[in-house]
Amino acid sequence: MPKRLFVAIDLPESTRQLLAGIDPHIRGVRWVDTAQMHLTISFFGDVPNDIGLAVREKLSAIEFGAFFLPIVGVGTFSAKRTPKIIWISVGKAHPHLFQIHKRVQEAALAAGLEPELKPWHPHITIARCRDVSAQSLRKFLQSNAEFDAGMIRVQDFHLYSSKLTSAGPIHTRELTVSAT
């Protein structure tokens, strides 16, 4: 049976709590559970078991050095000018982060997965919006445009499986790759 897989960097608990603390409590804005906050490196979708095993093997071979990553600036992704996702920016084209992304993409390709062709915009999803106008978020976005959650030390990344439930996704760590 296929598993829904993605690769992500976890956030320290202190960063998650800081991000939870800026929740504006606006109707229609659902803040992400702090336990689910992460930086997605690559989303693979439903992956057959044999390819999943190959992905694990290829990801395990990735070597990288630990680095620090700034978490600064709140924004939104919109559909037809209606906000759908509230995010916080990560790294501002940080070369070490993009190198990990590139290596993960190469590992996925070598394992037999189709490459992600759309541009990658590293971010942490902090909220999802339903029937929320851009106007109702304007003040929150303006006051948090330069919100600084500090730096996080990236010393590992993880392969997760994700099971969708009515209560939200359940993520299970399948593999950890640590800095050398």
What keywords describe this structure?
180 residues; alpha+beta; Cyclic Phosphodiesterase, Chain: A; 5-stranded antiparallel β-sheet; 4-stranded antiparallel β-sheet; 4 helices
What features would you describe in this structure?
This protein has 180 residues and is α+β, with helices and mostly antiparallel strands. It has a single domain, classed as Cyclic Phosphodiesterase, Chain: A. The protein contains 4 helices and 9 strands, in the order βαββαββαβαβββ. It has helices spanning 13-20, 49-60, 95-110, 134-144, and strands spanning 3-10, 29-31, 38-47, 67-79, 82-90, 123-129, 148-154, 156-163, 170-178. The chain has a 5-stranded antiparallel beta sheet with strand order 2-6-5-4-7. Strands 3-1-8-9 form a 4-stranded antiparallel beta sheet, with helices on one face. α2 (49-60) packs across α3 (95-110).
In short:
This protein is an alpha+beta fold. It has helices at 13-20, 49-60, 95-110, 134-144, and strands spanning 3-10, 29-31, 38-47, 67-79, 82-90, 123-129, 148-154, 156-163, 170-178. The chain has a single domain, classed as Cyclic Phosphodiesterase, Chain: A, CATH 3.90.1140.
Topology of this protein?
Elements: E1 3-10, H1 13-20, E2 29-31, E3 38-47, H2 49-60, E4 67-79, E5 82-90, H3 95-110, E6 123-129, H4 134-144, E7 148-154, E8 156-163, E9 170-178
Antiparallel strand pairs: 1-3, 1-8, 2-6, 4-5, 4-7, 5-6, 8-9
